[in-house]
Amino acid sequence: MLTRSRRRLAYLFTLAMGGILVTFAFVVYYFLVRERLRVFDQGLKEDTQNYVFQFKYPSQNEQYRVESGGMPLESSLTIRNGFEYVCWYDNQKRPLQINDNICPPQYLVKQGFQTILSNSQQLWLRQLTSPFQNGNKKIGYIIVTKSLEPIQEHLGRSRFYLSLGVPITLGIVGVVGWFLGGVAMKPTKRSYEQLQRFTADASHELRAPVAAILSNAQVGLLAPEDNCELPRQRLENVVDISKSMSALIGNLLFLARHEGRLNPKDLQNVEIVGLLNQLVNQYQSIAKEKQLSLIGEFSSQPVTLLVDPDLLQQALKNLLDNACKYTPQGGKVKLKQFIQLRRISIQIIDSGIGIPPEDLPHIFERFYRVDTARTRTSGGFGLGLAIAQQIVQAHGGKITVDSIVGEGTTFQICLPLKKV
Questions:
Q1: pTM for this structure?
Q2: Which domain holds residue 372?
Q3: Residue 207: Cβ within 10 Å count
Q4: Domain assignment present for 47
Q5: Which end of the chain is more exposed for a tag (fewer CB within 10 A), N or C?
Q6: Three state DSSP letters for the chain
Q7: Is 314 exposed, middle or buried (0-12, 13-18, 19+ CB in 10 A)?
Q8: Backbone phi, then psi, for 341, in 5-degree steps?
Q9: Considering the domain boundaries, does residue 29 fall inside one?
Q10: For residue 346, what pLDDT is reported?
Q11: Which residue among 154, 176, 193 closes a domain?
C-alpha cells in the first residue's frame, strides 16, 4: 500500500513538473524563434538599405541595359548581398522592366516583412517590401528576399536539443519525484509501522495473560460448591493478571501516544535540580528497604529547562527502578547531574550486576529481555527502557548506556539547555 502511494505521488509529481517543463520548453522555443527572426529581419533591413544606396535607380527616360538572362547588369549587387532576388516597383507598385518573371505581381506587393515559400526551390524565404526615396520624395518600392535556411538550421538544432533534453529531464524529475515521495511518505510509513508494531506487540503480549485469566476462571468454576478457598485463589490470580495487563496496555498506549517530538504547549520551565532532589527523597525509602545507599550529586546553581516534568520524571523513575532492583544489598545508586557543552547531563549509576556486552545494543528495543532471570525494565515487560528512550528523544535529547558485568551500569541522559 505504501509503495503504491509512493508510486502515485511520484507519478503525479512527474506529471505536474512535466507539464510545466514542456510548457516552459515551448515558451523558450517561441521566444527563440522570435528573437532569431528579429535579428534576421534587422540584418535584412540593413542589407536592403546598403543595397539601395549602392544601386543606381534608373530614370523613366533611361534605357536599361539587360543581360541575356533578363537581369540588369546592376543586379550583380544582389549576389554580393546574398539576396535570392530583388524586385523594383514604381510609386504605384507597378513592376519595372528590369524585374524578371519571379517577382510578385502588383496586387501582392505589401509593405513590411513576409515569410513565403519559393515554388522553384522549395525554400522558405523572408521577404521585405520597403519604399525608397529620392530626398523627401517617395519614388518607388523594392522587394528583397533572403533564404531562412540559417535560421531553420539553428532552430533545428534547438529542437533537437529540446527533444533530447526534455525526456532526460523528465526522467530525472521522475527519479526526484520517487525520492521526494519517499520523504513525504516517511511520517505515514512511521505511523503505519507504529500501528502494526502496536498491534503485534499487544496481540503477542496479551495472549498469555488472557489465556491465564481464562484458565483461572474455568478452574474456579469447576471447583466444588463447598470449596470456597479455590475460587478465591483463582479470583486473586485473575486480579493480579488483570493489573499486569492494565500496566502493559498503559505502557503500549504511552509509546504510541508520545511518538515524535512533544507539543510545545505541553512544555513548561522546570528547575531540574529541584526535580532531582524530589526523586532522591522519594526513593530513599525504597533504597533503605533494599539496604542500598542512594546518593544525589547536583550542580550548585539552578538549571531551568523547558520540558514536560511528568514525562521526564517517568523516564528517570524507570531508570531508578532498574538500578534499585538489580543492585545487590550493600550496593550504591547515584543520581548525578552536571552541565557540559551547553547540555545538561543526568547520570544514574549503580553498582549492580551489569549488562552483557552482546545485549547492550538491544536493551532499548521493545519487549527485549536480557535473560529470563533478569529483566532490565519496569514491570517485567521489556518496555521501561524503550519508554525512557522515547521520552528523552521527544525532548530532543539522547540516552546512552555503559555497563560492565559484575561492576555496574551507568545510564546517561543528555538534554539541550536551549528551549526545545
A1: 0.50
A2: 264-416
A3: 10
A4: yes
A5: N
A6: CHHHHHHHHHHHHHHHHHHHHHHHHHHHHHHHHHHHHHHHHHHHHHHHHHHHHHCCCCCCCCCCCECCCCCEHHHHHHHHHCCCEEEEEECCCCECCCCCCCCCCHHHCCCEEEEEECCCCCCEEEEEEEEEEECCEEEEEEEEEEECHHHHHHHHHHHHHHHHHHHHHHHHHHHHHHHHHHHHHHHHHHHHHHHHHHHHHHHHHHHHHHHHHHHHHHHHHHCCCCCCHHHHHHHHHHHHHHHHHHHHHHHHHHHHHCCCCCCHHHCEEEEHHHHHHHHHHHHHHHHHHCCCEEEEECCCCCCEEEECHHHHHHHHHHHHHHHHHCCCCCCEEEEEEEEECCEEEEEEEECCCCCCHHHHHHCCCCCCCCCCCCCCCHHHCCCHHHHHHHHHHHCCCEEEEEEECCCEEEEEEEEECCCC
A7: middle
A8: 50, 55
A9: yes
A10: 92
A11: 154
Read off the amino acid at residue 347. Q
Amino acid at 256: A
Does 130 fall in a domain? yes
Task: Check whether residue 283 and residue 406 sit in a common domain.
Answer: yes
Question: Is residue 233 domain-resident?
Answer: no
List the pLDDT tens digit at each of the 420 positions of the chain.
Answer: 677 877 888 888 888 888 888 899 899 999 999 999 999 999 888 888 888 777 654 544 444 333 333 334 344 444 446 788 888 888 888 888 777 677 888 778 888 898 888 766 678 888 898 888 777 777 888 888 888 888 888 888 988 888 888 889 888 888 888 888 778 777 777 777 767 766 776 666 667 677 777 777 777 777 676 677 777 777 777 787 777 777 767 766 766 666 666 777 778 888 999 999 999 998 898 888 889 999 999 988 888 888 888 888 888 988 998 899 889 988 999 999 998 878 899 999 999 888 888 888 888 877 776 654 444 333 466 778 888 888 888 888 899 999 999 889 999 999 988 644
Residue with cell 496496555: 249
Q: Cell numbers at residue 83, please?
A: 539576396
Residues 269 and 387 reside in one and the same domain = yes
So what's the pLDDT on residue 336?
92
Pairing of strands 112-117, 332-340: unpaired
Query: Last residue of some domain: 130, 154, 178?
Result: 154
CATH number, domain with residue 112:
3.30.450
Contact 307, 268 (CB under 8 A): yes
